[in-house]
Amino acid sequence: PIKLLMSWLLSPVCELSHIFVLCGPPDLREIVFVIQSQSNTFHVRQAERRREDLLKQARGFTEPVVLLLHSLSENEGDWSILPLLSHSFGKNSSWIVFLEEETNVKLIALIKVLAKVDKNKEWFLGKPLFDEESTIIHHYAFAENPSIFKYPDFAASWALSIPLVVRLAKKVKEEPLKSDFTIDLKHEVALYIWDNGKGPHLTAVPELCTVPEDSPQASHCATTVSKKPPLCGDPVNKEDIFVAVKTCKKFHSERVPVIKKTWEKDALFLEYYSDHADPSIPTINLGVPNTERGHCGKTFAILQRFLSSAVPDTKWLLIVDDDTLISIPRLQVLLSCYDSSEPVSLGERYGYGLSQGGYSYITGGGGMVFSRKAVVRLLKSGCKCYSNDAPDDMVLGMCLNALGLPVTHSPLFHQARPEDYARDFLAHQVPISFHKHWNIDPIAVFNKWLKDDFTASQDELKSAKTEL
Hints:
The structure is a single chain. This protein is α/β, with parallel strands linked by helices. The chain has helices spanning about 1-10, 40-55, 105-115, 160-175, 185-195, 255-260, 295-305, 330-335, 370-380, 390-405, 425, 440-450, 460-465, and strands at about 15, 20-25, 30-35, 65-70, 95-100, 105, 125, 130, 150, 160, 180, 205, 225, 240-245, 270-275, 285, 315-320, 325, 345, 350, 360, 370, 410, 435. Strands 16-15-14-17-22-19-23 form a 7-stranded mixed beta sheet. The protein is globular, with a radius of gyration of 24 Å. The relative contact order is 0.11.
């Protein structure tokens, strides 16, 4: 009996709870892993590596189901998670565990975490984030005490028990998302699950972590992440990036000087586009009047100019607002992971009407990056603005959707200010951009968050090339 008890205690999934021993060989068919993948070539490769790592760790046990989100259906809205809950996840499954492509998983440690929880009840598990102050990206939710509401850090992984999934799937069919916009998915999913107190709160799981894998703090963790930016080879040359800054006369003296004092020097090819030609900056008047709301007319004029002989022939176009703060060196590193011969549209992804067959788009304030191929496809399609003041980012999203071209998300681009994001969320990032000068010192924000260039050493780059 003693030997039998010891063998139980040393088995891969074994927990001593009061007088009961809960153990035995793990049935990994109870867990469905969903990797929150994207259809871009680089992201597919990253997701497939994550799947291979999970399956490698599972050798000798029953093989888990590992699904890639982008391949589950043709529905563009699946990245918003809720529409895919009606997907059949298998008769034996007890948990759906969602992972980002960058989430490192210690499989046995994660199984032990889930073994502690009653799978027959509704559970929403994750690493909690919270807002220190109410923020526009969360529609100023819980304005009186924003820290009271917790939502999951997707990078740490998060899990739903099947009883909760079953109820949510029914709820999604009967009651779609109330908001047309999908802005910060992790917060919106948590709100939908909570359901004004009728559903479960997020339960904090200390073993779901966002510390680096080699950190001393990682010893107790079932998941970890890497803070380093992805290394896919040499950073893209400055000569390959053309930067277009949208401005207007009233902001020439207020916003443009911030760019000149911060990141302008890192861009080799940069032009300012305005409703007024000011040779002291200089700005270029594209013949499009300034509009108070959307800037579709100006943006499409920029796209046409990018393909003309008026500017250098470059592989990438970056379009930013005059109150966007951005790190060009970090963008150079990130773009090394993408193939400029593909129609790439990259930035912070938002969604409109995703539960009713809508579309995704790159939100403009964080910076919109397009490969030359993407710009050529957009303009050849006949895509155009329905008015000069239409929202340019959303019109571009509609056009990309009509063409069947993917919108690629990077969490390193930010539509808002650093204080609009949870501190723990930013702690494991090397951000590329922030947006808005409202109620901040933009130069101080740039110096704190974006100034260092994080260019990798040659040894690191050689290693990355060998691995890739």
